[in-house]
Write a structure and sequence with these properties.
This protein is α/β, with parallel strands linked by helices and 248 residues long. The chain has nine helices and eight strands. The longest helix has 20 residues.
């Protein structure tokens, strides 16, 4: 059996060398690069139902999306007691009632965000929720020069899109420890006062609305809480003195 030896200097050897280089270039430039792993999304903070703290502090929140009739009475009760509260306002309400919004700020209260038109955030996408919250922030800032730092979702609705939107905007999503259910006609003044005073604990968040019964109950609630040694602070102030937790 004869084997033909090709000289490295022969034309055939040169052709074979060029062909090998061509194949190598094809492999290098056309072999797909390994896929990078998708980035792991940062954990989204959960809702704040209360704050674990050693301080005897309680935050009163008042969700305002309709009317103005009882806001002056609520502010008067808070001012008289040198107490603070967080008014979670709707964007449309803020635009329609600039004087009342200014009065809240002038009284030393915190302004929070309660959505634009009290829609259902759980049924909205992340982008829709972000727009809704931002629109309200801009409306409030346009009236009083203050941008809300905390967000209370309408109806207390939670869901991935709601939590993600609040996280994108770096706004704590605030719920409540004690719900006065003051919007319900059967919730009497004594019911609301007893419920708050019997369930109060350090770091609690109390939910209220501007109703006639709330206007009557608030002075009694403030008096009862202060007599128990509680300081009434804004939500943001409460968050600074403890650790937020996601249960009541």
């Amino acid at each position: 059996m004869w084997i033909k030896v090709i000289s490295l200097r022969s034309p055939t050897a040169k052709v074979l060398s060029l062909f090998a280089l061509f194949l190598a270039s094809v492999f290098v430039f056309h072999t797909p690069a390994p896929r990078s792993q998708p980035a792991v999304e940062a954990s989204v903070p959960g809702p704040v139902y209360r704050v674990v703290t050693a301080r005897r502090a309680v935050a009163l929140t008042i969700n305002v999306v309709w009317g103005t009739e009882y806001v002056p009475q609520l502010l008067a009760a808070l001012r008289t007691a040198h107490a603070r509260a967080t008014f979670m306002v709707g964007g449309i309400w803020a635009q329609q009632h600039p004087q009342e919004l200014a009065d809240i700020v002038k009284a030393g209260m915190q302004i929070g965000n309660h959505g634009w038109a009290h829609g259902h955030p759980a049924a909205m996408s992340v982008d829709e929720n972000v727009t809704d919250i931002q629109k309200t922030n801009e409306a409030v800032h346009g009236v009083v020069g203050v941008t809300p730092a905390v967000y209370a979702p309408p109806y207390g609705e939670l869901g991935p899109s709601v939590l993600k939107a609040a996280a994108v905007l770096h706004m704590p999503l605030v719920m409540w420890t004690i719900d006065t259910i003051d919007w319900r006609p059967s919730s009497s003044v004594s019911y609301m006062v007893n419920k708050v005073l019997s369930r109060a604990k350090p770091g609690a968040i109390v939910l209220m609305h501007p109703t006639d019964r709330t206007a009557k109950a608030l002075p009694l609630i403030i008096q009862g809480l202060t007599s128990q040694g509680y300081q009434l602070v804004t939500v943001s102030a409460l968050l600074k003195v403890g650790t937020p937790v996601g249960d009541g």
